[in-house]
Hints:
Blueprint: E1 9-14, H1 18-27, E2 36-41, H2 49-57, E3 62-67, H3 78-95, E4 103-107, H4 113-130
Parallel strand pairs: 1-2, 1-3, 3-4
Helix pairs in contact: 1-4
Residues 14, 16-17, 43-45, 67-68, 73-75, 78-79 line the site of FE2/S2 (inorganic) cluster.
Amino acid sequence: MEEKFNPKIIGIFCNWCTYLAADLAGISRMQYAANLRISRVMCSGRVHPEFVLWAFKKGADGVLLGGCHPGDCHYIEGNYKALRRYILLKKVIGQFGIDERRLRLEWISGSEADKLRRVTNEFTETIKSLGPLPNRDDIEVDAFDESELKIVEPEYVTS
Ligand code: FES
């Protein structure tokens, strides 16, 4: 019998917002997909693109980034930097045949446990529909060129 695909999803969350939302969801005993494994950073701007490429290479089927809403970043504009990288990263992962839906960025504040739950469940369903990540070995972790960031205009994600 064929084994059911149970995706591995890595969440890289800002300490000041999305990580707190995940904590609140846990305290509130909210049920959400158990596929998520969370890694905490002090700001979404700390998420170097190599973290994401490594996650895919080492076994993740999807990567969810979580940061403070625009205007709320504790380091002023770390989330804007994260957004620029995200836009570019989607193109980079495409070069390795990775569907861009496998990477998602969301602004989730510490009080938005319900949004955290909704996004996690939605994302898990998306990744399930895409199936296991193919060709991990082809991913070059240093493929991201930071010098291209200056040409990316951020379009704020407001959902
Ligand atoms: Fe949360 Fe910068 S402190 S995104």
